[in-house]
Amino acid sequence: MHVEACAYLAGVRGAGRAFNTEKTYAGRIALYLSYCRGHGLDWAGPSLPQLMAMKRWLVDEPMPSRSRKPGAAVRYRSEGTANAIMGTVGEFLSWCSLQGWVPPTVVNTLTQPKFLRYLPAGFDPGEDGQHRTIMARTIKFRVAVPGYECLSDEEIAVLLGLARHDRDRFLITEHQPADQQERPTTQDNHRPPARCARCAPTRRAWPLPGAPPARCSSASPRAATSPGCWSTRAARSATRTAG
Prior knowledge:
This protein has 243 residues and is mostly helical. Helix content is 44%, strand content 4%. The protein contains nine helices and two strands; from the N terminus they run H-H-H-H-H-E-E-H-H-H-H.
C-alpha cells in the first residue's frame, strides 16, 4: 500500500467527499503511481516535461479492453478525461507538498498566472480588475466546450410518443425552449398550475400536451382539506356538474 496515497484518500474522505469521488480519485492516483514506476520516475519529484509526457501518454496509450473476446475495439482516453486525471494528480501533489513529502518547486510548476481578457458571465473582476489574474493549470489540453443543440418540433413529438410515464413527458416538455412550449388556452379550460405538493411539487406543472389528466395521489389529511391539484379540482367540478 502506498502510504502517501492512502493518507490523501483519507483526507478526501474526511472532507466529506462522496464515495464515488474517492473511488475515482483512487483510480487516477493509482494510474499516476503505476506510470511513474513503469517509466522509472520519482512520483514525489516529477519535472514539468515528465508530467507533460504523461498527459500525452494518457491519450496515446490504448485503454485496457473490457471485453474478453478477441478483436475487441481499441479504446482511447479523450483529452477531457486526460485533463481530469492530471487535475487529480495536481491536487495529490499539492496536498503532499503541504505534508512535506513533495518539494514546493514541483507544485509551483503546476500553475501559472493568466489574465482574463474576456470575463465569464457573472464573474466579478474587482474594483481595479485585481481578480482578472488567476492561477491556471499548465498541464492540460485545450478542449472546446461542446455546444447545445435544440430539438425540432418533430423530434420532440417522437420523444413524447416514446415516453411511457408522465414524469418523462414532463421532463421533455420542461426542457423545450420557451418559444416551443405549449401553454393552455381557453379551449383547454385555462388550466392553472397544479398546487398539490405531492402530485406536482414544481411551480410550473402545466398539463402535458395530449396527456390524460392524472388523478391526485395525495392521501394525507392535509391534502383532503387543501384545494388540491388541478386534476382533483376538475374531478370535483365534473361531479357537481353531473349532479
